[in-house]
Amino acid sequence: MAQLVKLLDYVSRYENDLSHYPTQYIRLKRYQWDRLKLQWENGADHLMEWQQSEEEAAEQPEEGKWFSPFFRLFGRRKEAVEEEELEEDNEEEVFEFTPHMTYSPSSLDQLRKHYLDQLFHFQIKWASSTLLDKSKVDPRFLRDSLLRSFAQQLPDNYLLFYYPILLLKKAPVELDIIIVTPVECMCITVLEQEEVAAFVGSGERFWMKKVGESESKLLNPLISLNRMSTIVSGLFKAQDIDFPVKKYLISRNGYIDYPGSPYDVKIVDRRSYEEWFSVLQKLPVPMKSTQFKAAQALLEVGETTAMSQLFGQDEEQEEIE
């Protein structure tokens, strides 16, 4: 599952320490999957035996070994503590990821889907809260099929910025989708409207959309895509980050016809989307330091609007600088 680093202007746990949370997320994901799979295969008794052995081993951790007494699965809460980070931050973090089986899956694939659906909700939480602050999540994101597809089906080493709002020269700037992979920064503009719509592209300000016998105009989507690419490239250049920025115009449910499309824009429509997405899923490259620097450059100018978790829901939202 790709890591949802930034969603709109929501406060994100990744803003606190981008070098820490990607690794912790991957460990958490694997750890909880192993536990849930063990329970599904052998029943709760085996899970409890395994949990007890884990807790006993945790009492005497090996020197230099990452340790976290993670997460009781069913109806419990357990602290996730990474000792080295606690020494630096003197901060205790509590997570509430408690995957459970609401039905008995008949296959491992069903169990995996059930698990990933619950993990997706947890990703939204990580991308909208910290220990001290939280942002109000628009429920539409829980139903967003593209967000779910990117989050659940892309590799763990992808860092996802979903329609982030950046603060540039004291003005908020809304972007489309950015995915920072180990090898490039993908700037993605999505063109999805009616099912099987056909979009006729040109270098003009407006494109033509055809649905059946009807035709209408829409703003050239490359305008926002080029703008986003320019902003991202400028941020990287300002910090001397040598990282490729690539542009993608995608449509899962429509056709894009633009014979004279710019050479630096990859157009992906319903005819090629599955193949393109399959290639993205198979990138074997581990996370890179330049990838983290690129993502950090975006986070540093990300606008964040949140409210304190110390107060009730009725408190006014405040903008965090």
Give a written overview of the molecule.
The longest helix has 22 residues, at 21-42. The protein has helices spanning 21-42, 44-58, 83-89, 108-126, 145-153, 221-238, 273-281, 289-300; strands at residues 3-7, 78-79, 94-95, 133-134, 159-162, 165-168, 171-174, 177-180, 185-190, 198-200, 206-211, 214-219, 245-250, 255-257, 265-268, 304-308, 318-320. The chain is globular and about 60 Å long. The protein has a six-stranded mixed sheet, sandwiched between helices. The chain has a four-stranded mixed sheet with strand order 12-11-10-14, with no helix packed on it. A three-stranded antiparallel sheet has the order 4-16-17, with no helix packed on it. It contains eight helices and 17 strands. It is 35% helix and 21% strand. It has 321 residues and is an alpha/beta fold.
Average residue pLDDT: 81
Task: Give the class from helix and strand content and strand pairing.
Answer: alpha/beta
- Measure the end-to-end span: 30 Å
The side-by-side strand order for the widest beta sheet comes to 1-5-8-9-13-15
Largest sheet: 6 strands, mixed
Strand content: 15-25%
Could you say which overall geometry the principal axes of the C-alpha atoms support? globular
| Assembly status | single chain
| C-alpha-based Rg, rounded | 22 Å
Q: Show unreliable segments.
A: 45-94, 313-321
Q: Please tally the β strands and state the result.
A: 17
- The helix count comes to 8
Q: Helix coverage percent of residues?
A: 25-40%
SSE order: EHHEHEHEHEEEEEEEEHEEEHHEE
In short:
The chain is α/β, with parallel strands linked by helices. It has helices spanning 21-42, 44-58, 83-89, 108-126, 145-153, 221-238, 273-281, 289-300; strands spanning 3-7, 78-79, 94-95, 133-134, 159-162, 165-168, 171-174, 177-180, 185-190, 198-200, 206-211, 214-219, 245-250, 255-257, 265-268, 304-308, 318-320. The protein is 35% helix and 21% strand.
